[in-house]
Amino acid sequence: MGRLCERAKVFYSQAFTQYQDAVNHHEHEKTYLTEQFEKENTLLWGELWARDAEISELSRCTNEITFERDTLQGKVTLVERQLRDAKEDSDKYRGLHSELVAALSRIKAETEALVSSHGKEAIVANACVERASEGASPNLPRAVDRAWLVSQKQFVGGVLDGSLGGAKNEGRSPEREDVVEKGPSGDS
């Protein structure tokens, strides 16, 4: 029995050594795996922090881009409004220009008619003077004055009643016709 106890002690000692080696091996493996886990964990946390920083940067850039987009959209809206207002103003000015061109054309035509009318009045006055001088009437200065007064009266009357071109009486006035027909002394 002593031998058996000895053998049991040896087996026990061998088994204990094997178990102790296995425990040591497992302890080393556990330490190694724990270190590896810590390294992996540190790397993963580093990547996570880097991604968080990248996400924060992207979010900040997105916010800046959104702000710039909104600012530019506001400017575009303002420019569109200004362009629309400018177009409306341009249309107004174009309409005013057309009205002014028409008014100037009308005034030019009236002025030409007035100049032509005064030319006719000058011809009438000259005809009166010639008739008066043919008859050698002593009333010649009065006839010339009367013709001049009649033409001035017609001119002023035309201006006052808006008939600058003689539109109401087709460019003639009855008094002018009377002067031509009757002559300066009132005879035909």
Descriptors:
3 helices; rod-shaped; about 85% helix
Describe the structure.
The protein has about 190 residues and is mainly alpha-helical. About 85% of the residues lie in helices and about 0% in strands. The chain contains three helices and no strands. The longest helix is centred in the middle third of the chain and has 134 residues, at about 1-135. It is rod-shaped and about 190 Å long.
Structural topology:
Blueprint lengths: L1 H134 L4 H21 L13 H9 L6
Helix pairs in contact: 1-2
User: What's the quaternary structure here?
Assistant: single chain
Number of separate strands? 0
Shape call: rod-shaped
Stretches with pLDDT under 50, minimum 5 residues:
163-185
N/C terminus separation: 187 Å
What is the overall pLDDT average? 80
Main sheet characteristics: none
Strand fraction equals under 5%
Note the run of SSEs as H and E.
HHH
Structural class: mainly alpha
Question: How do you describe this structure in short?
Answer:
This protein has 188 residues and is mainly alpha-helical. The protein has helices at 2-135, 140-160, 174-182.
